[in-house]
Amino acid sequence: MAEAIVELKGVGKSFRSADGAARSVLEGVDFRLAEGEIVALLGQSGSGKSTLLRILAGLIGADAGSVRYRGQPLYGPARGIAMVFQSFALFPWLTVQQNVELGLEARGVAPAERARRANAAIELIGLAGFEGALPRELSGGMRQRVGIARALVIEPEVLLMDEAFSALDVLTGERLRDDILRLWSGGEMPTKAMLIVSHNIEEAVLMADRVLIFAADPGRVRAELPIRLARPRDVDSLEVRALIDEAYALMTASAPVAGRATEEPVRMHLGDRLPDADIGRMEALLEMLVEDGREGRADLPQLAEEAELTDHDLLPLAQALALLGFAQLADGDLHLTELGRHYVAGAHTLRQQLLGQQLLAHVPLAAHIRHSLEQAPAGELPQEPFLDLLEESLDRATAERVLRTAIEWGRYGEVFEFDLRTGQIHLPAGEEQEKNAL
Ligand code: ADP
Ligand code: MG
User: Fold this and answer.
1) Pairing, β 380-382 against β 424-426
2) Which residues have CB atoms below 5 A from the ion given as ligand 2?
3) Ligand 1 pocket member 49 (CB < 6 A)
4) Which of 5, 38, 47, 340 has its CA 20 to 30 A from that of 209?
């Protein structure tokens, strides 16, 4: 086995939320990055990927476990590790050249040497001729190239990329990714290992030697998919398609069992996050499944392509359908259940009834809200107690998002209503009167 450059053992990290309670973001993370490899990290947003990268870069400390760089405990930012962020954190008043030199200045490199190394990095990443330009004069793709040059100029052994291509349009992102792979394969970069966080499954499979699937709440490595294909890889080849399917399967598997079908609907707990899925889009996806030639089953990567959805958008929809028992996820395929067929064939009212029924049966949060409303004096309650409950396991923004999703689904299924004006959740209109009459 190649020598580990960075090694994490049993790493844990928690953050304090506004009310002072500690929330565990990472737990028991074991990870090693060896010389010569590219590793990709996939996982839903909020699962702690950026936190893990910041710990690896020495930007923040871990609360538990050990972090070693070349065998030594890592305290503070490591010289040989550079990070590229999703947003182009460039100084608007500095030129490309000055932005790139910045990191070297902080490291006490002499001016002439700074200029030489910055020029080399700028040239390498394809920005020659733009040394004197200001960030606002550059396209998004070129700005991100400056961000990468700024990381490369310190000649890092380890390059960490946090969704570095995801703010770019698809073509620009792909071109930049291919350029980086070319530099890597050609040995033109001083970099000996890369860790890329991505929310694009295809990108991960095209780039990495290993894809790690991260689980959330708390974040930890749930599965690993080795990819033993030479680069550059052909996205349309059978091997690559099969690996993309496998990565989808791992991403959507509810249990830590690799690639296993999830026959049973996923069991949820009260404070679990709900997939960020809109009913209209869930229905559109169900309708795609019954289109001619599909017979109720489709390959997720293919669906993503046809529906022009990113994995980021498609996966929550597929997960929501599985959670509600309208579809099943198995081996990267989505297929309709009997109930799902019934739903698609049904008219609006039947759909509402089915959704309401499934929501109460499979989403404990919705059942809890409904139950609480039935106990409440006027059949109505403010959102706060539910948010507080969710905040025991989720951060504030996620708690709000999850409650919004539950409310949106609940409204559609006529399980409860929400009054935008008062911010109160209440029983549906007809039922409220019944209750008041009692
Ligand atoms: P990802 O990159 O996978 O989307 P992050 O690592 O950015 O996830 O965040 C994981 C969780 O940790 C989120 O719930 C986020 O709100 C929380 N978090 C991240 N950084 C901080 C911080 N400095 N203080 C408090 N909470 C944080
Ligand atoms: Mg992140």
Assistant:
1) antiparallel
2) 50
3) yes
4) 47
Ligand with the closest atom to the CA of 44: 1
Tell me, in angstroms, the distance from the centre of ligand 1 to residue 37's CA: 26
4-252: CATH topology is Rossmann fold (3.40.50)
CA distance 46 to 57: 19
Q: Where are the domains of the chain?
A: 4-252, 361-437
Alpha-carbon span 417 to 60, nearest angstrom: 43
Strand partners, 382: 424
State whether the beta carbon of 45 lies less than 6 angstroms from ligand 1: yes
> Which atom of ligand 1 is closest in space to residue 52's alpha carbon?
6
Which DSSP state fits 36? T
Q: What's the whole-model pTM score?
A: 0.75
Predicted confidence (pLDDT) per residue in 227-284, tens digit: 999 999 999 999 999 999 899 988 887 543 333 344 444 567 787 889 999 999 999 9
Ligand having the closest approach to the CA of 273: 1
The second-level CATH assignment, the architecture, of 361-437 is Orthogonal Bundle (1.10)
Q: pLDDT of 49-68, one tens digit each?
A: 999 999 998 889 999 999 99
- Strand ranges (DSSP E) for 150-219? 158-162, 193-198, 210-215
